[in-house]
Amino acid sequence: MTRELVLVHLYPREMNIYGDTGNVLVLRKRLQWRGLPVRVEAVSVGDRLPDDADILLGGGGQDAAQGEIGADFVSRGEQLRALADDGVVMLAICGSFQMLGHEFVTHDGVRIAGVGVLDVVTRGQEQRLIGNNHVDTPDWGRLVGYENHSGLTTLGAAAVPLGRSQHGRGNNGTDGTEGAVRDNVFGTYLHGPVLAKSPRFADELLRRAYARRGDAVELEPLDDTLPEQAARVAVGRPR
Ligand code: GLN
After folding, report:
1. How many separate domains does the chain show?
2. Residue 107 a catalytic site member
3. In this structure, are residues 122 and 92 in contact, taking their beta carbons and an 8 Å threshold?
4. CATH code for position 122
5. Is residue 135 within 8 Å of 141, Cβ to Cβ?
6. In whole angstroms, how far apart are CA 101 and each of 15, 125, 210?
7. In the annotation, is 9 catalytic?
8. Are the beta carbons of 194 and 133 closer than 8 angstroms?
9. Domain extent for 166
């Protein structure tokens, strides 16, 4: 029997808008359906981050929530950078994506420092980018979600976009990019939760986590009729 996969849910109370906690549930369920052991650990302000974390998940949050957890998040910077360098899988949505970057300056000028795991910076603006969005990736199919953010994110040289966004959406509404990737770290603006409508991507995260540990786990195919149907419906509704 393979060792349990450890999913760490960062700041479940403060950073969970538009259903992002669902990403944790989707990964847990996809493991349970296959009879693979899994443990979920919640990490809030002041909690220790487990040493055996395989996948870290962080959701979106209001600017105020990002301010609240900001100091705690930044205090974990060294550890988070080391985990990223070590190939730990991370999925950070919207506010958490912004905080994995270098900094987020809100539209009213408040600077929230990030941890520099991803080479991105974010600047808030008055107007928000709101609506369904989908991103076609070369390797993991279509990712489908919903975005609502005032922060516009620009990628630096060390960050590769997750994919191409729909017009007027994505990282900044202008350069056509959505999200950012480095090693096994993924940031995206797709809420919804994205993994519930992007099953191939969900399995890619699990596969990478096992591969990093050197576990030869075969992920049996699941019946993804429902998530695929949900993805089609969302793509048909621009807002
Ligand atoms: N507060 C950030 C913004 O509006 C993130 C919002 C979110 O996570 N949906 O840019």
Report:
1. 1
2. no
3. no
4. 3.40.50.880
5. no
6. 16, 17, 26
7. no
8. no
9. 5-236
Q: Is the CB of 99 under 6 A from ligand 1?
A: no
Cα separation, 164 vs 67, in Å, equals: 29
At CB < 8 A and 24+ separation, what contacts does 160-165 make? 162/135, 162/137, 162/186, 162/187, 162/188, 163/135, 163/136, 163/137, 163/138, 164/135, 164/136, 165/133, 165/135
Burial annotation 72-83 (CB, 10 A radius, 16+ → b, else e)? bbbeebeebeeb
Tokens of residue 34, six digits: 């296959």
Q: How far apart are CA 2 and CA 151, in angstroms?
A: 41
Cα–Cα distance for residue pair 19/60, rounded to 1 Å = 9
Q: For residue 39, give the 3-state DSSP assignment.
A: strand
pLDDT digits (tens, 9 = 90+) for 44-98: 999 999 999 999 999 999 999 999 999 999 999 999 999 999 999 999 999 999 9
222: number of Cβ within 10 Å: 14
Q: Which residue owns the Cα nearest ligand 1 atom 6? A: 149
Put simply, whether the predicted model's pTM sits higher than 0.85 gets the answer: yes
